[in-house]
Amino acid sequence: MHGYMIYVLPGFLLAMIATWITRSTFARYSRVSASSGLTGAQAARRLLDSQGLTQVSIERAGGFLSDHYDPTSRVLRLSPEVYDAPTLSAIGVACHEAGHALQHASRYMPLVLRTGMVPITQFGSRLAGPILIGGLMFNFPPLINLGILLFIGVVAFTLVTLPVEWDATSRAKQLMVRSGIVLPQESAQAGAVLNAAFLTYVASAVSAVLTLLYYLSRARRR
C-alpha cells in the first residue's frame, strides 16, 4: 500500500487541485454577464450555425457541468447552469462543446481515434485492475500482462483526450469573438474557464500514467 500511494498520490492531489480550480473559476465568471445577453444554448446555436452545422441539435441535460457532445446522435447536451445562463462561464463551456461538433464534422483525427477507443477503454477500465490483482496474487504472468495491456489502452485514451480538448478550446476561443458571441475583451474571461477545465484532463492523464508505472513496477518485481 505504501508503494501504491507513492505512485498514485501525486495524481490524486493534482486531480483535486484541478477540480477545485475549475469549479472556482466557473463560479467566478458565472457572476459575469455577457454583453451579448446570449445564454449558453443560444451561444452554441449561433456558433454552430455560423459554421453550417444547423443539423446539430442542442438539448438540456441533468447534472452539474455534465456538458458534452454526443457524436453518435449529433446532439450537444448542456447542463442547466450552462444551457440557461447568459454568463461568460456558460458561453465558454457551451462553445467548447460546440467545438467538438466542429471536430466531428471535419473528422479531426484525434477525435476519430478517441471515439473508436471508447469501447476498448470502457472494457479495460473495468477489468484491468481485477485482472492485474488476480495475476499478481496467483503469480500468473499471462494474466498480469493482459491486465497491463488493458490498462495501457486506458492510458492511451487519456493521452489522446488532451489534444482533442485543447483543440476544441482553441476553436471556441476564436469563434466566440468572430461570431459576435463575446467581445474581444470578454474572450479571455470566457476562455479562463476552459483553461481551468483542461487541467482536469491533464490530471487524469498524469494519474493514469503513474498508475501504469506502479503496475509495471509490481510486474517487474514478480
Question: Could you characterize what this model shows?
Answer:
There is one protein chain. The protein has one domain. Helix content is 75%, strand content 5%. The chain contains seven helices and three strands; from the N terminus they run H-H-E-E-E-H-H-H-H-H. Helix 5 runs antiparallel to helix 6 and helix 6 runs antiparallel to helix 7.
Strand content: under 5%
Q: Tell me, what's the shape?
A: elongated
Number of domains: 1
The total of helices stands at 7
Distance between the ends: 16 Å
Secondary structure category = mainly alpha
> In total, how many beta strands?
3
Q: C-alpha Rg, in Å?
A: 20 Å
Mean pLDDT comes to 91
Q: Helix proportion of residues, in percent?
A: over 70%
What are the SSEs and their pairings?
Elements: H1 2-29, H2 40-50, E1 57-60, E2 68-70, E3 75-78, H3 80-83, H4 88-105, H5 109-137, H6 141-178, H7 184-221
Parallel strand pairs: 1-3
Antiparallel strand pairs: 2-3
List keywords for this structure.
three-stranded mixed sheet, 5% strand, 222 residues, mainly alpha
Write a brief structural summary:
With 222 residues, this protein is mainly alpha-helical. 75% of the residues lie in helices and 5% in strands.
